[in-house]
Amino acid sequence: MTRYRRRLRLILPRVQLRLIGAMASVAALALLLEYTLLVRSVLHIAESLPHDRQVLIAHASSSLGWVLAATTGLVLPVLILVALMVSHRFCGPIYRFQVYLSAVAAGTERGECRLRKGDDLQELCDLINKTTAAARQSTAAASAPAREAA
Question: How many domains does the chain have?
């Protein structure tokens, strides 16, 4: 049996890009919330200072902007990479089911559907194998006399 490796490419681009976009949006919102709460806390501290309030506010605005840029620059690329890897475990099997069912419908597939170790949707693959067993057997039976005659 040939071993298939996952590649870092988009298998189902439309689905994967939607999943990655949703995860990136949630992360961006979380980063903005973090930034807002951090700015609020610093301003609250600045209000309680007797003499250095303006100095703290002046330094905090540039420092907190740099913190937001750095965390966004670090978190979002890592999140996109993780989302891509996770989506492969889900979208890979869907793509495999699509190719397998097309081959069964065309009568060219006689074996069972197999997924890579670690992929999601293993139970669905088993159900597809049970459902297509009759079609695969009839295709194999129909092609057996043709092979014997040749």
Answer: 1
Residue 29 falls inside a structural domain: yes
Cβ-count burial 103-131 (b if 16+ within 10 Å, e if not): bbeeeebeeebebeeebbbeeebeebeee
- What pLDDT is stored for residue 149 in this prediction? 59
Q: Are 54 and 40 in contact (CB under 8 A)?
A: no
Domain boundaries, position 44: 13-149
* Token pair of 24 as six digits: 């990136």
Model confidence over 3-43: pLDDT tens digits? 556 555 788 889 889 998 999 999 999 989 988 888 888 88
Tokens read off for 139: 């295709």
Whether the Cβ atoms of residue 38 and residue 64 lie closer than 8 Å to each other:
yes
pLDDT band for position 98 (cuts 50, 70, 90): very high
DSSP class per residue in 9-62 = S-SSHHHHHHHHHHHHHHHHHHHHHHHHHHHHHHHHHHHH-SS-HHHHHHHHHH
Token duo for residue 136: 């695969």
| Burial of 91 (C-beta count, 10 Å sphere; 0-12/13-18/19+) | buried
